[in-house]
C-alpha cells in the first residue's frame, strides 16, 4: 500500500498524519506547541521543540498506522524565522513567529523611505512585520556575532519547512519551496528567484538562504523513515491544494490559529486594489502558480485566548457550547487585533477591543462575540476579494476551528453563500501528502488528486441579508473604533 506521511507544523501544534493513496486517514499524532510572549507584541517558538515535537509525532503516527511511508510531505506555519548554525545544527535564538510585531517601527521606516511600491511589485506583499525579512534582520542585528557569521556562510536561515528538512536529512539539504519563499519579502515572485535588490534593502546576506524548488519533487531522504521527502508547501497553499482548488477562481478559507482565504489565479499573478496580497501557490512542475490571499492574524487563536488568557473555557472545543448558551452576543463585539490587524487593514499598531458591554453581559456573550469575530474577519476578506472582481459562489473551508458548526453557520449567514466543509478538515496535511505523492510518482498528475475531495456538510445561509448587513455594520463600527486609536 502507498502510504503518505504528512508533517503539519502549525502555529498551535505539530501534527503528523498518515493517509492512504485514496486520501483516507490511517493514523494521526499531535503535540501542542509552547507559545512564548516575552514582551507585548512579541511571539516566539522554540525551534528545538518544533523539531522534537514534530519528530515524536511522525514516529507515533507511523507506529499507529503500522506502515512504511512511500513519501513524506512537509507543510508549515509560514513566515516564521529560524536561524541556525550550519555546523552544529543548533538554533541561535528562539524562532520569531509570523504573529510577532517587534519590527513594526522598521517597516514604518522603510515606508517613509518610499520603498513599499517597489517591494510590493517584486514580492506581491505589503511592508508588514508579518513577513520574514524584517524578523531575520532583527536576529542578525541582535544576536551577538550573527551578522559576521552569516556573511562568512556559517549560518542558515529557513522558514519552518527548511528547518524540518534540514533536520530530517541530517543537515544534508538546505532548501524550501516557492510557496514558502514567496512569504519572506526576499523572493521575486515573477522571476522565481531571491532578489539581490531586496536582499540589499533588508540587509540580508545571500549565503543564509535556502535553494528554492517547486513544491513537488525530490527534496532529500529522511533516513529514519526510509522515505523521500517529496512535497513541501506553506500550510495555506497546501490547504488550497488539498481542497482540490487547483484552477483559477477556486478558493478556500482555513480556520486555524489565523484565518487565510486564498483564491487560485493559475499562472497569472493578480494584484489587489483592496488590501489582499499576491502569493505563490503550490507548484507542480516548472510553471509558477499564483494565488490572491487575505490573511487574518487571530482566528482560532481568539479561542485560545478565552482558554489561556481569560480562563473562560478549559478546551477550545468547549467554546461552541458556551457561545450557544446565549441566543446572540447581546450587542458585544470583540475585535481581536492582538497582533495588529492584517488584511485588508494592515495596521501593525492596532490593539484589540471588547465593546458594547453592559451589566447583563456574561461569559457566554463574550464567547459568542469571540466566535463571531472569526467569521466577521473572514467576511472582510471575502468582501475584498469580491471587490477585486472575484465571482465566488461558495466557500470551501477547513482547519481546526471549522469543526465549530455555530461558526460555520454564522459564516454562511454573513456571506450569503454556502459554506462547504469537506470530510477531511485536515486539508493542509492532505495537501502536503498529495504533493508528496505527486513528487514521488504515486499519482500521475494533480488532476488525479482532485477526485479525492468529499463533502461532509454544506452550511446554507439562513439569515436575511438585512440582518447580515446590520451585523456587518456593527462589526465595521467596532473596527473603525480600533483603527482610530
Ligand atoms: N471547536 C472549536 N471552535 C473554535 N475554535 C477552535 C475549535 N477547535 C479548535 N479551535 C481553534 O483552532 C486552532 C487550531 O486549529 P489548527 O488548524 O490546528 O491550527 P494551526 O494549524 O494554526 O496550529 C486553535 O487556535 C484553536 O483554538
Ligand atoms: O498555523 P496556521 O495554520 O494558522 O497558519 C499560519 C500561517 O501559515 C501564517 O501565515
TrEMBL record:
Pathway: Polyol metabolism; glycerol degradation via glycerol kinase pathway; sn-glycerol 3-phosphate from glycerol: step 1/1. PROSITE patterns: FGGY_KINASES_1, FGGY_KINASES_2. The keyword Isomerase does not apply. CDD domains: FGGY_EcGK_like. It is an enzyme of class 2 (transferase). It catalyses: glycerol + ATP = sn-glycerol 3-phosphate + ADP + H(+). ATP binds at residues 11-13, 257, 300, 304, 400. Residues 4-242 form the Carbohydrate kinase FGGY N-terminal domain. InterPro entries: ATPase_NBD (IPR043129), Carb_kinase_FGGY (IPR000577), Carb_kinase_FGGY_CS (IPR018483), FGGY_C (IPR018485), FGGY_N (IPR018484), Glycerol_kin (IPR005999). Inhibited by fructose 1,6-bisphosphate (FBP). It comes from the Bacteria. ADP binds at residues 11, 15, 257, 300, 400, 404. SUPFAM superfamilies: Actin-like ATPase domain (SSF53067). GO terms for molecular function: glycerol kinase activity. Glycerol binds at residues 78-79, 130, 235-236. Belongs to the FGGY kinase family. Key enzyme in the regulation of glycerol uptake and metabolism. Catalyzes the phosphorylation of glycerol to yield sn-glycerol 3-phosphate. NCBIfam families: glycerol_kin, PRK00047.1. This is Glycerol kinase. It comes from Pelomonas lactea.
Amino acid at each position: 500500500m502507498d502510504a503518505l506521511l504528512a508533517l503539519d507544523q502549525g502555529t498551535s501544534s505539530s501534527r503528523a498524519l498518515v493517509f492512504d493513496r485514496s486520501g483516507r486517514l490511517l493514523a494521526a499524532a499531535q503535540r501542542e506547541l509552547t507559545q512564548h510572549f516575552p514582551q507585548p507584541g512579541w511571539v516566539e517558538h522554540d525551534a528545538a521543540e518544533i523539531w522534537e515535537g514534530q519528530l515524536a509525532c511522525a514516529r507515533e503516527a507511523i507506529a499507529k498506522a503500522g506502515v512504511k511511508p512511500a513519501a513524506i510531505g512537509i507543510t508549515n506555519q509560514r513566515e516564521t524565522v529560524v536561524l541556525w548554525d550550519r555546523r552544529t545544527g543548533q538554533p541561535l535564538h528562539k524562532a520569531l513567529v509570523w504573529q510577532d510585531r517587534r519590527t513594526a517601527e522598521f517597516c514604518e521606516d522603510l515606508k517613509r523611505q518610499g520603498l513599499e511600491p517597489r517591494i510590493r511589485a517584486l514580492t506581491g506583499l505589503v511592508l508588514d512585520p508579518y513577513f520574514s525579512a524584517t524578523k531575520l534582520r532583527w536576529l542578525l542585528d541582535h544576536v551577538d556575532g550573527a551578522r559576521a557569521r552569516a556573511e562568512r556562510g556559517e549560518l542558515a536561515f529557513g522558514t519552518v519547512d527548511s528547518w524540518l528538512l534540514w533536520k530530517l536529512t541530517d543537515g544534508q539539504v538546505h532548501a524550501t519551496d516557492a510557496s514558502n519563499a514567496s512569504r519572506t519579502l526576499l523572493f521575486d515572485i515573477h522571476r522565481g528567484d531571491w532578489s539581490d535588490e531586496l536582499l540589499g534593502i533588508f540587509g540580508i546576506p545571500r549565503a543564509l538562504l535556502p535553494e528554492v524548488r517547486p513544491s513537488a519533487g525530490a527534496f532529500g531522504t529522511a533516513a529514519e523513515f526510509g522515505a523521500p521527502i517529496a512535497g513541501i508547501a506553506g500550510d495555506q497553499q497546501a490547504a488550497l491544494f488539498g481542497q482540490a482548488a487547483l484552477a483559477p477562481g477556486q478558493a478556500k478559507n482555513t480556520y486555524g490559529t489565523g484565518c487565510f482565504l486564498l483564491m487560485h489565479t493559475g499562472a497569472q499573478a493578480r494584484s489587489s486594489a483592496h488590501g489582499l496580497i499576491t502569493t505563490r501557490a503550490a507548484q507542480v512542475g516548472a510553471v509558477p502558480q499564483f494565488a490572491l490571499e487575505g490573511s487574518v492574524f487571530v482566528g482560532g487563536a481568539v479561542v485560545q485566548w478565552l482558554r489561556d488568557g481569560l480562563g473562560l473555557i478549559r478546551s477550545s472545543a468547549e467554546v461552541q457550547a458556551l457561545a450557544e448558551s446565549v441566543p446572540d452576543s447581546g450587542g458585544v463585539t470583540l475585535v481581536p487585533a492582538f497582533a495588529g490587524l492584517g488584511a485588508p487593514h494592515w495596521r501593525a499598531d492596532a490593539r484589540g477591543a471588547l465593546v458594547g458591554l453592559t451589566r447583563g453581559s456574561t461569559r457566554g456573550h463574550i464567547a459568542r462575540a469571540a466566535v463571531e469575530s472569526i467569521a466577521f474577519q473572514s467576511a472582510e476578506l471575502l468582501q475584498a476579494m469580491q471587490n477585486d472582481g472575484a465571482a465566488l459562489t461558495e466557500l470551501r473551508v477547513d482547519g481546526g476551528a471549522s469543526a465549530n458548526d455555530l461558526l460555520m453557520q454564522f459564516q454562511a449567514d454573513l456571506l450569503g453563500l454556502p459554506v462547504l466543509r469537506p470530510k477531511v478538515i485536515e486539508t493542509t496535511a492532505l495537501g502536503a501528502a498529495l504533493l508528496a505523492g505527486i513528487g514521488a510518482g504515486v499519482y500521475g498528475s494533480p488532476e488525479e488528486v482532485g477526485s479525492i475531495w468529499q463533502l461532509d456538510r454544506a452550511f446554507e445561509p439562513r439569515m436575511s441579508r438585512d440582518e447580515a448587513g446590520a451585523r456587518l455594520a456593527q462589526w465595521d463600527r467596532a473596527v473603525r473604533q480600533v483603527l482610530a486609536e
